[in-house]
Amino acid sequence: MDAKPESTRPALVWWLLFALATVGGPIAAARLIPDSVVWIQPVVLFWVVVVAASLCVVASVAVIRVAARDDLAEVGLIGGFFFAVSALPLVHGLTVPGVLYGPNPATMASVFWALPIASAIACPMVAPRRVRAAAVRHWRSWIGTWCCAIVALAVALLVDPTLLPFPPLGSSAAMVVASLSLVSCVGFSAAHLRLYWIGRASGSLAVAFGYLLVGGSSLVWFGRAPFTTGFWLAHGMDIVGVLLGTVAATVTYHQGTFVRSVIAPLVAHDPEAALELGLDPTVRRFVADLEAKDQMTRDHVVRTAALALRLGAELHLTADELRILGLGALLHDVGKLEVPTAILTKPGRLDPDEYAEMQRHAIAGDAMVRRSRVVAECAPVVRSHHERIDGRGYPDALASTAIPKLARIVSVCDAFDAMASTRHYRDGMGVDRAVSILREHSGSQWDPVVVEALARVVDAGTAVPLPTALTDVGREFTSVSCCCVDALPESVVIT
């Protein structure tokens, strides 16, 4: 039976209700409440927007600076998005008619174009792999050019408020652009919400809601006049949305959390980073115990987990399945903590008795993780990662689809890393040879679909190196426990 993912219904319902409130609220307020229900307070609008937008500009610049310092390309894209929806709304506040300026189009033109520009800046985050890779290589130029253009546009609007055209509130053109802007923000939000389901990290959830709020604020263009209920509601949503996406991250950073751990997982293309951020201390302790016995084994399980997550994404697993897969891969060899050190580190082939002792690690690991409520959900993966498609594996001699789906994935990743990487008893045979052996025994020892998916992932160059996101997992502890060394006692038998 496949591992059952932890229920996400409460989080999903919360997100759907929140989306309904943010998307439905501005439209309902703009279209259903009579236009006579207005609160015309230009001075209040001036100060609220100028103060809030200034804070948001500072927060978004802080995010970009952190990205530049640590060379975090996708973090820079997030900062660029929020910079656009902060700097141009600052122009909106400064040009409110009746304070510093008389009647002028800049006050509405600046906010109309802010979200389309922000979406263009952040679009590489959800672009195809090749486009994203190009953006990552040149992200500093990309963000720098956009930020300079935004500043230049803001200054130009303050000098000449008639510079930029915009459609009137409630027009078809305005509603189309607003709808497209909302769609892009919902896409960004959904990607970050997916990372929350993988890592259960509150930062991912805050950014997801931040994007959703900013997107919902664009629906003010469905209204017919300024200073209506919908108009004020949209301003509040935009301010809160930007603050959720920037201030929370920068405050956490200044409180001492490494920004790579705070912000880097908040992008849709790094599930292992999302998992790492949300890992419970129980998992970290298990991995620390492994390293206490043998660093090579600890690095093996970490590499296996990172590869499994990338392979899971290639196989289009759900966020909950990715979470269980990542946990199961990290802990797949935890049962070897109970295997004698002499057997674990033996440089040669194991004799039959030693091999039988080694095989017990699957059952031992299953028992260990089931004792912890935090990781019990990955027990089927830990127990069954040495089962074979032809039913000749252990410990239960399961065959074909009787083997849990996630265990079949970990089995392929475990075998690939064991063969491709250097071990105590032999040098690594390399990526090509490892893939060749996997294919040779595809359909008998390993799931053919999983093997071919791994071949695609490896061909894309995303396998083998120790992943940045998981590099330090388990190293927060000084452990007195012992760990294990994976063994390859037979040519294609992975223990």
Poorly predicted tracts of residues: 1-7, 252-269, 462-468, 478-491
Individual helix count = 21
**Category by helix and strand content:** mainly alpha
Radius of gyration: 27 Å
Report the oligomer.
single chain
Q: Number of DSSP strands? A: 0
Mean pLDDT: 78
Note the gap between the termini. 22 Å
Order of helices and strands: HHHHHHHHHHHHHHHHHHHHH
- Beta content comes to under 5%
**What would the principal axes of the Cα set say about the shape?**
elongated
Characterise the protein shown here.
The protein has 495 residues and is an all-alpha fold. 63% of the residues lie in helices and 0% in strands. The chain has 21 helices and no strands. It is elongated. It starts with 8 loop residues before the first helix and ends in a 36-residue tail after the last helix. Residues 1-7, 252-269, 462-468 and 478-491 have low confidence and may be disordered.
Keywords:
single chain, 495 residues, mainly alpha, elongated, disordered N terminus
Q: Can I get a quick summary?
A:
With 495 residues, the protein is an all-alpha fold. Helix content is 63%, strand content 0%. The chain is elongated.
What order do the helices and strands come in, and which of them pair?
Elements: H1 9-31, H2 42-70, H3 73-94, H4 106-122, H5 129-137, H6 139-159, H7 172-199, H8 202-217, H9 229-254, H10 259-262, H11 271-278, H12 281-293, H13 295-314, H14 319-330, H15 341-344, H16 352-359, H17 361-370, H18 379-384, H19 405-420, H20 431-440, H21 448-459
Helix pairs in contact: 1-8, 1-9, 2-3, 2-9, 3-4, 3-6, 3-9, 4-7, 7-8, 7-11, 7-14, 8-9, 12-13, 13-14, 13-19, 14-19, 19-20, 20-21
